[in-house]
């Protein structure tokens, strides 16, 4: 058999078996009788079998035709499953939204944004990758996510960006640290002279701190320990390792229960913008545009 039969010809054969008339089968399928005759002849030629006995009283299936018709019904049923399954997959792909976010944004803001988005579209499936700002920007630049959220003060070339929130970094220590009870603010000189528990390079929090210190002109940040997550930094500070500079979003609960204490600062601007990023030249798909709108509406001011 040089070429398999096409689904339209199989459907014609099944309809012919049901109606006993090639003309009626052609009418139901919306084709002319000559076209139906030609299609049926082609099917018989491809299979190498006589499928229909034609007479003035109509068309009846041969024994081979009856067997082929039963197989054709199964093929068409499986084809229908395939087509419906493909449609379902297309609908799911259309409803999928791939997001990457830096840790502070992912832990404290994105869940609320996604919840609000899914109220309007309960079927929407959202996948979230959590990593540092540099990695988020790279994922967005390569088009591996539909939308990214970063907390770094700079955005690489090749990306469009929009501010979605404003954040503030705070100097925090354990309650037993000497700075916990001081009333005089910590200035740039003292802060740069004190080893800090810091996030890894590529972190938006680390980059914001280093740029803020560079603007003061007093020197570079000294690292007491370099840790790969905000949770690890918070734990180290609470255990008494030393001061850290973290987002107020990340330490809000710790400050409320006095697990950590915020130290006043002066002469250093630790505010920053949190931004959405996506590839330049690309129009956001509807789910990504909707999430961006939700994030922008929910923008919270610096405290």
From TrEMBL:
<feature type="domain" description="HTH lysR-type">
    <location>
        <begin position="5"/>
        <end position="62"/>
    </location>
</feature>
<dbReference type="InterPro" id="IPR005119">
    <property type="entry name" value="LysR_subst-bd"/>
</dbReference>
<dbReference type="GO" id="GO:0003700">
    <property type="term" value="F:DNA-binding transcription factor activity"/>
</dbReference>
<dbReference type="Pfam" id="PF03466">
    <property type="entry name" value="LysR_substrate"/>
</dbReference>
<keyword id="KW-0805">Transcription regulation</keyword>
<dbReference type="InterPro" id="IPR036388">
    <property type="entry name" value="WH-like_DNA-bd_sf"/>
</dbReference>
<dbReference type="Pfam" id="PF00126">
    <property type="entry name" value="HTH_1"/>
</dbReference>
<protein>
    <submittedName>
        <fullName>Molybdate transport repressor ModE-like protein</fullName>
    </submittedName>
</protein>
<dbReference type="InterPro" id="IPR036390">
    <property type="entry name" value="WH_DNA-bd_sf"/>
</dbReference>
<comment type="similarity">
    <text>Belongs to the LysR transcriptional regulatory family.</text>
</comment>
<keyword id="KW-0238">DNA-binding</keyword>
<dbReference type="GO" id="GO:0000976">
    <property type="term" value="F:transcription cis-regulatory region binding"/>
</dbReference>
<keyword id="KW-0804">Transcription</keyword>
<dbReference type="InterPro" id="IPR000847">
    <property type="entry name" value="LysR_HTH_N"/>
</dbReference>
